[in-house]
Amino acid sequence: MTFRVLLLVVGAACTAAFPARAQKRGSFEIGGFAAYLNADNSLPVDNALGFGGRLGVNPLSFLAVEVDIASASKSGAGYRPLHVWLVYDVPSTSRAEVFAGIGFVRNTYTGAYKANDSGVAGQVGLRQRFGKILAMRLDGHADFMPSAANKSYLVSFNGNWGIGIGVSALLNR
């Protein structure tokens, strides 16, 4: 019984109170994250946990330009995706914000397998604000490389994906 009351109070505190307003033009987001990165099965790169960082700026109220880079390695091969995103922040009605983005990805494979490829990417996620500056962020992305690093008669494209969770500082909002 006590646990249910505590859960109800914490849930109400996280989603109630003051609705978050649109981001101001020129506001920034800077943050770090841990991610599970899944490389295409045709690549000689294992799936691994990694870390990364992001930086974003809002040129318009609900539109952001973000850059993120992550790095993961396992079994002597590394994987480093660099994304440039155009992100739409869905107008929120609470401290939780949903966002979706499209963008460009540049993958660098290092270590035992050295190669590069690039393509298009998509992401969706949730940002939960805690106060005016701090936020927790959960997002997932999928990358499609039409000209794969390991292109052959058997492999015509690659598809990588990842899930990340992290903390962000929301500045000038």
Shape descriptor: elongated
Strand neighbour order, sheet with most strands: 1-2-3-4-5-6-7-8
What is the count of DSSP helices, taking H or I runs of 4+ residues?
A: 1
Number of domains in the coordinates?
Answer: 1
> Helical residue percent?
under 10%
Whole-angstrom Rg:
18 Å
**CATH topology (fold) name:** Porin
Mean pLDDT, nearest integer? Answer: 86
CATH class: Mainly Beta
Question: Low-confidence spans: pLDDT under 50, at least 5 residues?
Answer: 1-21
Question: What does this entry show, briefly?
Answer:
The chain is mainly β and 173 residues long. Helices cover 8% and strands 62% of the residues.
How are the elements arranged and paired?
Layout (H helix, E strand, L loop, with lengths): L1 H14 L12 E11 L9 E13 L2 E12 L2 E13 L6 E16 L3 E16 L3 E12 L12 E14 L2
Antiparallel strand pairs: 1-2, 1-8, 2-3, 3-4, 4-5, 5-6, 6-7, 7-8
Task: Provide a descriptive summary of the structure in words.
- There is one protein chain.
- The chain has 173 residues and is mainly beta.
- It has a single domain (2-171), classed as Beta Barrel (Porin), CATH 2.40.160.20.
- It has 1 helix and 8 strands.
- The chain has one helix at 2-15; strands at residues 28-38, 48-60, 63-74, 77-89, 96-111, 115-130, 134-145, 158-171.
- The protein has an 8-stranded antiparallel beta barrel.
- The protein is elongated and about 50 Å long.
- The chain starts with a helix and ends with a strand.
